[in-house]
Amino acid sequence: MLIDKDPFRCFMPYPPVRVASAGGGPLAGLTLGVKDIYDVAGYRTGSGCPTALAMSEVKQANAPAVDALLEAGAAFVGKTHTDELAWSMYGMNAHFGTPVNPAAPDRIPGGSSSGSAVAVAAGLCDIAVGSDTGGSVRAPASFCGIWGIRPTHGVISLEAVQKLASSYDTCGLFARDGETLLRAMSVLMEDSAPLPDVPRLMRPLDMLAQLGPEQRAVYDAAFGGMEATEVSVYPEGVEATYKTFLTTMSADAKVDVVPFIRSSSMPLVRGIDGRADAAEALTDAEAEVGRTARAAFTAAMDRLLGAEGVLLAPVVHDAPFRLDAPVEVFDGFRHDAMRLLCVAGLAGLPQVVMPARKVDGAPYGVSLIGPRGSDLSLIRAAMALSAVPA
Fold first, then answer.
1. 1-235+296-390: CATH superfamily
2. Is 113 a catalytic residue?
3. Per residue in 94-120, pLDDT tens?
4. Per the database record, which ranges form the Amidase domain (predicted)?
């Protein structure tokens, strides 16, 4: 890392290598952290995995997404921690440790983009690159009380980035405010389908039904006074939709990451072992059923949103849990969170997370989900709505 001190343990302690930046440009004056699944010239790519780090050569070029930010003037300050192979949501890496959540030091920071979220929340960099497959930008943004975006799937290059599940993987960003997030995202993409100045707001009742009273109170404080149409987003029900997500993500992982796990004989920590086994056991017929259901869900979401619709959506079901939580919390929290996170992921839609209030002393964010290709205008809409007095 290139910063002097890292009290929140969010950067990988690699020997510092200077990475060229344009100096001038739209991101001049901003510092940049990069999740350690992206190639950065002069560094190995560790992916939170000692086996992958040992097998990695020193990279000679940057991933295109990183290059674009550097060419726009951002100054690189280090590679950030990630959950192993980006295949977890908690930010706790058994090999390299757990970054400290600046907003709630006794709680998980969220992952897998743990280091990037913490670095931004702690003020150690202004923007940070993460990745979001099942929620790896959105969850830590909510948990650390910062802004984050999962973009429309496929609009930002993932060349020279470790794969997890290709039809879900996206390049996301973190920032401490909407203006900076918009400034950085504008370097990486343009809107192909911008929202109107006054989008059609929708309140997803079947997402809100998954919240407890305290969480719903935070949501209502952010969005409750806004005129919005009440809608449902799970045409086949929450559990059927979540099963579709698990099936299709596992089908991707079976191709994208399980072969490395098996061929390298890497030791498997709790969590990854079961997910790898489940992906490997998935049949082609089961995967095809999942893909068909996913296509139907995507079409339904496209019809619901149209060109002007925006969901006023919860991000996850709760604030981050404590680091010393019992094992049953570790086993169940991920599934409860992903029943909400899977909505944007399944349909490949952009979702912007913004800070809200706290639940039990820890941050709990809210979000907007918009039509595909509306990413930049969705950030603008989030900025406008966050400025509306509660």
1. Amidase signature (AS) domain (3.90.1300.10)
2. no
3. 999 999 999 999 999 999 999 999 999
4. 23-377
